[in-house]
Structures are given as structure tokens and as C-alpha cells.
Amino acid sequence: MAGEITETGELYSSYVGLVYMFNLIVGTGALTMPKAFATAGWLVSLVLLVFLGFMSFVTTTFVIEAMAAANAQLRWKRMENLKEEEDDDSSTASDSDVLIRDNYERAEKRPILSVQKRGSPNPFEITDRVEMGQMASMFFNKVGVNLFYFCIIVYLYGDLAIYAAAVPFSLMQVTCSAAGNDSCGVEADTKYNDTDRCWGPLRRVDAYRIYLAIFTLLLGPFTFFDVQKTKYLQILTSLMRWIAFAVMIVLALVRIGHGQGEGHPPLADFSGVRNLFGVCVYSFMCQHSLPSLVTPVSSKRHLTRLVFLDYLLILAFYGLLSFTAIFCFRGDSLMDMYTLNFARCDVVRLAAVRFFLGLFPVFTISTNFPIIAVTLRNNWKTLFHREGGTYPWVVDRVVFPTITLVPPVLVAFCTHDLESLIPESHTVSSFCVSPGVERGYTSGSGNPPISNPLTKLTTSLE
User: Fold this and answer.
1) Phi/psi of residue 197, each to 5°?
2) Does the pLDDT at position 27 exceed 70?
3) What is the average per-residue pLDDT within 148-166?
4) Considering the chain, what percentage of its residues have pLDDT values greater than 70?
5) At what angle do helices 142-175 and 418-432 cross, to 10 degrees?
6) How confident is the model at residue 5 (pLDDT cuts 50, 70, 90)?
7) Any stretches that span the bilayer, and where are they (predicted)?
8) What fold does the segment set 5-61+130-460 form as a domain?
9) Average of pLDDT values for 311-316?
């Protein structure tokens, strides 16, 4: 059932958890940050980035606090149930027999080396991974639970719409030019319109929609099934992501070092703050997967310090990526997907590198799309689920997958403007992860997760 308590998984050290969290936060959302920086101005962007990073850290601590409260409540309920069982047994057995049997059973369930340890455990210790739906039912009333699922569904629809638009858009930009096919893809100082020719009589918008149709036909059917065992696929895409980020930063630094930097970003332009806000919120979202990250950590003694260190590293990385981009390229030449700026012959001479960076979003996003689609489908099922009831086969296997897949594809069909899609879809979800709300619930993920909005490398490694 969605949102219940799931297995913790294999334990790992706090430093491994730090790496997992870094991997979770720094994803494809960072590719839209350079253009947002150039639009809003470097000083305003830096201030807003630091502020939203701090707010994300604060809400992360609230989530961890809520996880501890949930574990304490579950532990208290177990103690009450155990006491009731002991009271029932006392009618047929003496107190000494119950005490001996209880001590024996407890010793049998504990690890050998811990049997001799004395002292009561910390009731707020996070040992059970409580899924998002379970947390909502523990702390919210019926209205709150429904609002919770509404926020998650909006967030997931936004993700799917962005993914459905980003893949065809990248393919269109790499394979099309104003004159037709061009191995260099995006040329310098060239502005393309959707009505420009791509292949013969086909326009660029036609090519985009063809790619969208192929994308939907290839990945859409996964919505009607379950996605499991994506560990090695996620490892591969994670490696590709970090290779791509490193190559882009190095190439930008080399161009700036050789005096080829074209960027002269303004100090502040408040007209771009709205877009920057949405991009930064998207780039710092990790709270939805914290239970799957934090619960398996073997020692949580210095967890808050490590999380704070993680956020400092992420801020440094975002700043390095964005500042090298805005000083390397002119603001009006920065693409919505930053990787497409390196599909130019004057920037990268090696064709293999150009195609790798230009098609990088295609590889990484395509692996996440089925997982998020299955997650959204299962959230719909949980929202309308009634205790003891079952869905007809048509509703379960056809209706829910259809209402999951069709809306984001329609949005992607109507627009491929990623700069507007990201702020619109994630401004709503930012209120769902505000400090006041996150004290009431957290989320987790399995493999595949039922109510986890975003599954990445961390959750798949368990």
C-alpha cells in the first residue's frame, strides 16, 4: 500500500549519505540555472540563491525533526501494544513467567553484541523509514491529507511536463538548423523560430512534435507497468551527469582564460527574479526523499552539520556553474538547457563532445521519466483509495495511467519554453515544502517508490 513503513535498507556511513544527498539535489535542474542568472543579474541571483539554499536547509531540518517525531510515535504505539499483550497473558501465566519469556524474546531479537547493552534507547531515534503517505495520515486530518496529495500531484505533473518538453527540445536543437541538418547544431549568433525549416518541408516545431511523439511512444507504456531494479541504470546516468558538468565548467573556464568570454551580465534585473525563484526552488528540492536518505545512515550524531556542509558544497557548485556560464556566454545567447550552448562548432571542436553534451538531457531525463510517471500514477491511486476497496481492472490499468500520461504530454505539445514551465510548476510545489507544512509530514521512497516525487540515484541504490 502506498505511503506505509518500508524497509530501511542496508546501512551506510554519514559521509556516504552526504554524497547521496549531493547527487539527489544536483540534477538536471541545474542546467536551467545559468540562463536564469543572466536574466536576473549576477548580484540578485547570488543573493537569492544563498537565501533559498538556506531556506531549503531549514526545511530539511524540519523534515528530519518530523521523522524523529514519527518514529517516537510508532515506538510508543509498539510499547502500548506490547503492554496490552502482557496484560492478556497475565491472566493465564504468572508475572515471573511473563517477565522471563519477554526478556528471552527481546534478547533473541537483538544483535548478539547488543544484548548486554543497558539503558533505554532514544525514543526519537530514526530507525523506521516512514513513507510520505503514512506521515500525512499520522499528522494530518482528512482535509490535510487530501491537500498533501494535491501538492505532490501538482509537483509530479510539473516534473513530467518539463521532462516531456526537454527531451524533444534538445533533440530538435541538436539535429535542426535554419538551413537543414547541421552537425554543429546550434550556431553562434543564430536565432531560430519554430517556423524555420528543419528537414526539407518540415519546420522545427514539426520536428519537435515528432520527437515528442516518439518519446511518448517509447516511454509512455512504462506508465502502465511498474519500474523496478534501476540501480545500474541510475549509476550510469549519474556518471554521465558528472562528466557533463565537469566538461562544461572546464570548457567555460578555458574560454574565459583565453579571453573569449562574451558575457557581461548586469548587476541586477528584477524582471528576471520570478523565473530565477522557480529555477532555484527546483534545484534545491530534496525534502521529498529525505527518509530514504537519512534513515539508513548508521550514525546520526552529527547529521545536521553534515547536511549543512552538503548545502555549502552545493551552493559552491551552483555558483561555479552559473558564474562561468554567464561570463562565458552572452545573456541573450544562453539556452534554456545550458548543455545546448556547447553544441556549437566555435565552442567545441570535437563532434563527439558536442553531441554528448547536446544530448545529455535526453539520456538522463529519459531514465527518470518512467519512474516519476509510475510514482504519480500510484499517488492518484492512493488519493482515491478507500479502506477495503479495490479498483476495477479498467480503472486500475487504463484510467489511472492515462490521466497520468496525457496532461504533461499535452502541455509539452503546446509549449517547449522550459524557462516558463519550471517557475510555473514549482512555485506551487514550493509552498508544499514550506517550513510550516514540513513539520507535519515527510516522504520516503522505495524501489520503485509509491509516493516519492523524485527517484534518483540515492533511492535506487538501496
Assistant:
1) -75, 145
2) yes
3) 88
4) 75
5) 160
6) low
7) 12-31, 43-70, 147-166, 208-227, 239-256, 306-327, 347-376
8) Amino acid/polyamine transporter I (1.20.1740)
9) 95
> In which residue are the cell numbers 517508490 written?
449
Distance CA 166, CA 215 (A): 11
Cα–Cα distance measured from residue 42 to residue 268, given in angstroms and rounded to the nearest whole number: 7
Report the alpha-carbon distance of residue 287 to residue 363 in Å, rounded: 25
Domain ranges of the chain: 5-61+130-460
pLDDT for position 298: 84
Please state which of the ranges 156-170, 176-190, 335-349, 371-385 shows the lowest mean pLDDT: 176-190
Reported residue count of the chain is 462
Does position 459 have pLDDT exceeding 50, yes or no? no
**What is the SS3 assignment for the chain?**
CCCCEECCCCCECHHHHHHHHHHHHCCHHHHHHHHHHHHHCHHHHHHHHHHHHHHHHHHHHHHHHHHHHHHHHHHHHHHHHHHHHHHHHCCCCCHHHHHHHHHHHHHHHCCHHHCCCCCCCCCCCCCCEECHHHHHHHHCCHHHHHHHHHHHHHHHHHHHHHHHHHHHHHHHHHHCCCCCCCCCCCCCCCCCCCCCEEECCEEHHHHHHHHHHHHHHHHHHHHHCCCCCCHHHHHHHHHHHHHHHHHHHHHHHHHHHCCCCCCCCCCCCHHHHHHHHHHHHHHHCCHHHHHHHHCCECCCCCHHHHHHHHHHHHHHHHHHHHHHHHHHCCHHHCCCCHHHHHCCCCCCCCHHHHHHHHCHHHHHHHHHHHHHHHHHHHHHHHHCCCCCCCCCHHHHHHHHHHHHHHHHHHHHHHCCCHHHHHHHHHHHHHHHCCHHHHCCCCCCCCCCCCCCCCCCHHHHCC
Cell numbers placing 318: 551552483
Q: What is the largest CA-CA distance in the chain?
A: 91
